[in-house]
Amino acid sequence: MTKEKITFKNIQQDFCRIVKWQLENKLEWRMCSIVPITLIAVIFGFATHRLWVGMVVFLAAGYHIFHLIKDIKEYFVKKRLVKDYLNRNDISISTEKFSHTAQETIYEPHIGFRRIHKTKTVKMYYFRAVSWRDPIFADHYLWSKDFSISSSGLENISIVGDEYFYISLQKYKNIAYIYPCKYFVLEDYLIK
Q1: Has residue 72 got a pLDDT over 70?
Q2: Rounded to an integer, what distance in angstroms lies between the CA atom of residue 92 and that of residue 39?
Q3: Residue 109: per-residue pLDDT
Q4: Which H or E element spans position 85?
Q5: From CA 16, how far away is CA 56, in angstroms rounded?
Q6: How many angstroms separate the CA atoms of 41 and 181, rounded?
Q7: What are the φ and ψ backbone dihedral angles of 132, each rounded to 5 degrees?
Q8: How confident is the model at residue 112 (pLDDT cuts 50, 70, 90)?
Q9: Whose CA is closest to 165, among 149, 145, 186?
């Protein structure tokens, strides 16, 4: 079996997907908060024939609109930073031995079945020195010709003791990705 080479372009695609996924998690529940609050503001305003009643309720929506705009701006800044850091070779690459996976409950507002929930169960991959949160993509390694794999497939191929390339940005450790060493090898210019 031949291993596929990991290039800067591949890492950049994966990191941009991580940044986009982080934004989507934030936007999803904000949008579901803005629409009902705005509708309530309009209804109160028309029902009472007083503009100030609707404006008071609309201020609550304003809080979410402000953070929505802030999150979108942060997304574009992070996306640009990912490209800048990769161009400067400002990434951290290490080889880590896989230890185990676990389900963890974390604080992260998200949309559940018709409700906003504050906690979420996520899958974490633990290695000797680091941990990595699985973003639950439909497919990991989309750029790969032979090894595009689902989240459950990634868990199924992970055996205790397997080695993974753990690649992260040096300043933003939460933007990271793992690559199984049994399927991938680093491009020569990535090896330091």
Answers
A1: yes
A2: 47
A3: 61
A4: helix 51-87
A5: 38
A6: 55
A7: -135, 130
A8: low
A9: 186
Q: Strands, E, within 54-175: which ranges?
A: 91-111, 116-127, 131-133, 163-169
Measured CA to CA, the distance from residue 161 to residue 152 in angstroms comes to 19
What pLDDT score does 111 carry?
A: 54
Cα separation, 58 vs 93, in Å, equals 47
HSE, side-chain direction, 13 A CA sphere, residue 174: 6
Q: What is the mean pLDDT of residues 147-162?
A: 82
pLDDT, residue 157, reads: 81
Is the Cβ–Cβ distance between 79 and 172 less than 8 Å? no
DSSP 79: H
Judge whether 6 and 91 are in contact, CB under 8 Å: no
Express each pLDDT in 20-54 by its tens digit.
Answer: 887 877 777 677 777 777 777 777 777 777 777 66
Phi-psi region of 97 (alpha: psi -120 to 50; beta: other; left: phi over 0): beta
pLDDT at 134 over 60: yes
Report the C-alpha gap between 182 and 98 in whole angstroms.
12
Report d(CA 34, CA 89) in Å as an integer: 40
Are 137 and 157 in contact, with CB atoms under 8 Å apart?
no
Q: Mean pLDDT throughout 178-182?
A: 89
Which of 61, 56, 59, 33 lies closest to 45, judged by CA?
A: 56
